[in-house]
């Protein structure tokens, strides 16, 4: 990736609105410098002085990457390139280290500071004490337009992440049998993602199962994971791989048992809705809201409009969910190279549901899906 070029463009934008920027370890920082993130933890893992962890930069100077010792060593970042690395030992004073950075930057009397949106409150509080006359703006807002349009190199990485995701799904399909639990399937997905080359799941792997004897339950994993899946039931998959820091998002529906005509009347509009949404992703001649409307119209016409409960999709890249969103009211003009999920669904609480999801690149002639397999009705007899 062209990190130096990205940094130059960002610093030009920064010079217009701020004298200093701070990004914690995040997708923003990885986009600018290539400094990677680690697999996330559920609970916080804290190190002495970790509020200074991240990159400090001005419109004209090379970034300073400040890391607690444990992050530098265990995170494999001690040899980071293209940054001036400063490691805070466990006994060091983080305030003194950051004060030294700030003095070296020769900031004006009333500095303007841009901070990444993932910055911890402890960092902001420390900066307010070190720079009591500073004003603050969002550094992520400055960076967002650059991240929104992906280069062909980024699209190629996402295409490979999609291939890993589909390979994992193919392996999971071979393991599916009646009577297995949702946890059995989730565990198999996560195993196959890593087995096929992913750092891990790009977000918490999710299943949405529904049928006459399997009510759809949201947000109750400790309940739903224990359920045994016996026909008839529709199993809606939602998961994705990580490759080189980029996140994929993928969805398919699998039916346990013999699907009847009524189920096909749910499955087919979802697939047609996705096709309409993909076709509507035309660079230079459509907006995010118009793509959402094109897909929603299909499901509305089939009589299931109320069961399409969410926006059509979201931008995606180094984060799973990025703005803009394919939703009513988002008038963002579509540009070539934007990446969106297109993920219509019909979700019902006491009977069968269906969903499909692929990552799609915006092109002048309409969207181009990065994954295209397993589009038929998948049945485990």
Structural write-up:
Helix content is 35%, strand content 18%. The model has no long low-confidence stretch (mean pLDDT 95). The chain contains eleven helices and 19 strands. With 381 residues, the chain is α+β, with helices and mostly antiparallel strands. Helix 7 (152-173) crosses helix 8. The two termini are 46 Å apart. The strands form six sheets. Strands 4-3-2-1-5-6 form a six-stranded mixed β-sheet. A four-stranded mixed β-sheet has the order 7-8-11-19, with no helix packed on it. It has two domains: 3-147, Creatinase/prolidase N-terminal domain (Creatine Amidinohydrolase, Chain A, domain 1, 3-Layer(aba) Sandwich), CATH 3.40.350.10; 152-380, Creatine Amidinohydrolase (Alpha-Beta Complex). The protein has helices spanning 3-17, 27-33, 69-74, 94-105, 121-130, 139-148, 152-173, 182-195, 221-224, 261-279, 288-301, and strands at 20-23, 54-57, 64-68, 84-88, 112-115, 135-138, 206-210, 233-238, 242-243, 246-247, 253-256, 313-315, 322-326, 339-342, 345-346, 354-355, 358-361, 368-369, 378-380.
């Amino acid at each position: 990736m062209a990190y130096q070029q990205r940094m130059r463009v960002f610093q030009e934008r920064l010079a217009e609105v701020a004298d200093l920027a701070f990004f914690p370890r995040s997708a923003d920082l990885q986009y600018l410098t290539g400094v990677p993130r680690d697999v996330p933890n559920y609970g916080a893992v804290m190190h002495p002085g970790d509020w200074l962890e991240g990159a400090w930069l001005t419109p004209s100077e090379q970034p300073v990457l400040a890391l607690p010792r444990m992050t530098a060593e265990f995170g494999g970042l001690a040899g980071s390139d293209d940054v001036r690395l400063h490691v805070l030992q466990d006994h060091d004073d983080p305030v003194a280290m950051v004060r030294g950075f700030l003095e070296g930057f020769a900031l004006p009397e009333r500095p303007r500071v841009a901070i990444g949106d993932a910055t911890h409150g402890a960092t902001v509080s420390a900066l307010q004490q070190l720079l009591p006359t500073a004003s603050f703006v969002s550094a992520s807002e400055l960076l967002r337009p650059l991240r929104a349009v992906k280069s062909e190199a980024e699209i190629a990485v996402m295409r490979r992440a999609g291939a890993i995701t589909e390979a994992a799904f193919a392996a999971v399909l071979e393991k599916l049998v009646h009577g297995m639990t949702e946890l059995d399937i989730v565990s198999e997905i996560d195993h196959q993602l890593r087995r096929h080359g992913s750092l891990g799941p790009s977000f918490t792997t999710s299943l949405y199962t529904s049928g006459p004897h399997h009510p759809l339950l949201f947000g109750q994993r400790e309940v739903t994971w224990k359920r045994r899946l016996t026909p008839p039931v529709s199993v809606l998959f939602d998961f994705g791989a990580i490759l080189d820091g980029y996140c994929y998002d993928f969805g398919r529906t699998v039916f346990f048992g013999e699907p009847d005509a009524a189920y096909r009347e749910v499955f087919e509009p979802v697939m047609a809705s996705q096709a309409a949404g993909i076709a509507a992703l035309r660079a230079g001649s459509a907006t995010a809201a118009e793509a959402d409307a094109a897909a929603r119209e299909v499901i509305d016409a089939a009589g299931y409009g109320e069961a399409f409960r969410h926006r059509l999709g979201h931008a995606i890249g180094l984060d799973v969910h990025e703005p803009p969103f394919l939703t009513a009211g988002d008038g963002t003009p579509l540009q070539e190279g934007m990446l969106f999920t297109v993920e219509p669904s019909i979700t019902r609480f006491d009977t069968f549901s269906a969903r499909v999801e692929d990552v799609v690149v915006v092109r002048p002639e309409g969207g181009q899906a990065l994954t295209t397999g397993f589009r038929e009705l998948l049945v485990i007899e």
